Amino acid sequence: MSASAPQKITYTSANADMTEFHKSFDAALAAVRAKAGAEHPLWIDGKAVKSSSPLLVDTSPIDASFVLGKFASATPEHVDMAVKAARAVQKRWGRLPWQERVQTLRKAAHYIRARKFEIAAIMSLEVGKSRLEAMGDAEESADLIDYYCKIVEENDGFVKPLGKLMPNENTRSVLRPFGVFVCIAPFNFPMALSTGMSAAALLAGNAVVYKPAQDTPWTGLMLYECYKAAGIPGGLFSFVTGLGSVIGDSFWKHPGVDGIVFTGSKEVGMKMVKEFSSAYPKPALMELGGKNPTYVSETANLDEAAQGVMKSAFGLQGQKCSACSRVYVHAKVYDAFVAKLIEKTKALKLGDPTEKDVFFGPVINAKALKTFDGAVESAKKGGKIVLGGGRLKGGVFDKGNFVEPTIVELPLDHELFMRELFVPILSVGKVQDMDQAIAESNKADYGLTAGIFTAKKEEIEKYFDEIESGVCYANRPSGATTGAWPGVQSFCGWKGSGSTGKGGCGPYYVTQFMREQSRTIME
Predict the structure, then answer these.
(1) 45 burial class (0-12, 13-18, 19+ CB within 10 angstroms)?
(2) At what angle do helices 302-314 and 334-346 cross, to 10 degrees?
(3) How are beta strands 406-409 and 207-211 bridged, if at all?
(4) Which pLDDT tens digit goes with each residue over 119-155?
(5) Which CATH architecture has domain 292-485?
(6) pLDDT by residue (tens digit) across 159-172?
(7) For 364, which of 43, 176, 319, 517 is 20 to 30 Å away at the CA?
(8) Distance of CA 170 to CAs 158, 163, 175, 411, 522, Å?
(9) Average pLDDT score over residue span 436-449
(10) Exposure pattern of 467-481 as b/e (b: 16+ CB <10 Å)?
(11) Is pLDDT at 5 greater than 70 in this prediction?
(12) What is the mean pLDDT of residues 99-117?
């Protein structure tokens, strides 16, 4: 990256001159550290709202003693205030010409880009993202808005003339907003996923009540501030922080809520899907994680395969719904592949991810540490740990939530091949052919992403046709199963990974926040 020709940083950026990037990141990091520890209210109907509940203390997973901020902890009464404020302003927003909504959201994308180093620095501290991952998240946020605006424009605001039965009949199909959506975001992509979900809802003419993950409220506040700067009315997008155990159900069970958009666990998402609708069906847009496989064939380029699997397995410490968490390797190349995978994983720089040369940082919280420990114990029963398996100790590692990138060899019937972990543990299994790899892959409840490495085009076609996943990659060393980008790869979950069959980053996402109305006028 240079001052004269800035380059966009994505999750798969490579071979870029990063000198200016790191200089700007260092400056942003220093500024963010200097203002850490402040108290922040809720923002409801454009007003700062305090709560009498104990503050939500936001600490860094890199250093548990570093307080990033103290955030108001909402009650169900605050949620009620936000929903009522949203209902009061939504109809006016929904009646605006779609061009005005597009113009406003494009301003939001501009403000995100203007503050992208600050946003990325906050995410690096708050989530434990590497610099590349953090900036990719910020850049994707702005690109998501621009892409969804482009889709609205290309479809003329989703107004389409229809046919006639009589000469004086004028009929149109018009997609219109549902009303008020609650947007519940995860910690792992706290800016991109929050932005993508909320921007699509807003572009469609809905109001949004937004709850960031309780581990990432500061990043969520950045989104609120960018929307506010763009001129989005206060009641149209409220920022409500708090504990999921206290306010989670009050969000989506509120009678004034018309739809849910949620990214998180399958367990929580399925509860919402089953209980949200009562008097009539209401939209519940879910992205619910994955257990993503990669197949390495006997003709694969093993260096590229090992690189792609390693990056997808251990980027963001395995805390991606798209992470490669299991790899099925043809018996003929199994030993050679595993050796290369171990070699490349050992070469990773582990440590404080805010430092420019660190790839692998901490997991998000104590719950993730417990999950990691439990999965390691499970792997030892019937399997073999070939790399890692423990906590990282000494120096910076003693301050935060650090574990080793871990590779385990398992029999194909081991439970870790089927269970989503969201920690840096990669399960490796030996197969005799691609048919067996596909069959094993498809046994999981999930169907988000999948990868294949092979020299045979016919194998790629067969794999894509038969694998039960919404996002498929072939021969991708930059990420076997990860790295989707707005307008480049649609990000759609099948089976237990999603609820609608149409994904974010793709051309059909915005329409899911709208319902069709047929309008006939006799002239």
Answers:
(1) middle
(2) 50
(3) unpaired
(4) 999 999 999 999 999 999 999 999 999 999 999 999 9
(5) 3-Layer(aba) Sandwich (3.40)
(6) 999 999 999 999 99
(7) 43
(8) 17, 8, 17, 64, 6
(9) 98
(10) bebbbbbbbbbbbbb
(11) no
(12) 98
Active site residue 492: no
Reported as type and span, the H/E element at residue 137 is helix 131-154
* Helical packing angle, 98-114 and 131-154, nearest 10°: 160
Q: Which of 287, 409, 440, 459 is catalytic?
A: 287
What does the alpha-carbon distance between residue 455 and residue 300 come to, in Å, rounded to a whole number? Answer: 6
The structural domains of the chain, with segments of one domain joined by +, span: 19-288+502-522, 292-485
- Residue 379 near residue 416 (C-beta atoms within 8 A): yes
Reported for 16-24, long-range contacts at CB under 8 A and 24+ positions apart, including other chains, are: 18/356, 21/131, 21/135, 22/131, 22/356, 24/117
Q: Is residue 226 annotated as a catalytic residue, yes or no?
A: no
How many CA atoms lie within 13 Å of 244's alpha carbon, on the beta-carbon side?
15
Name the active-site residue from 149, 183, 321, 492: 321
CB 190 within 8 A of CB 219: yes
- pTM reported for the whole predicted model: 0.96
Question: What superfamily does domain 19-288+502-522 belong to in CATH?
Answer: Aldehyde Dehydrogenase; Chain A, domain 1 (3.40.605.10)
Q: Where are the beta strands (DSSP E) in 317-448?
A: 324-330, 384-387, 406-409, 425-431, 446-447
Say how many CA atoms lie within 13 Å of 299 toward its Cβ.
Answer: 11
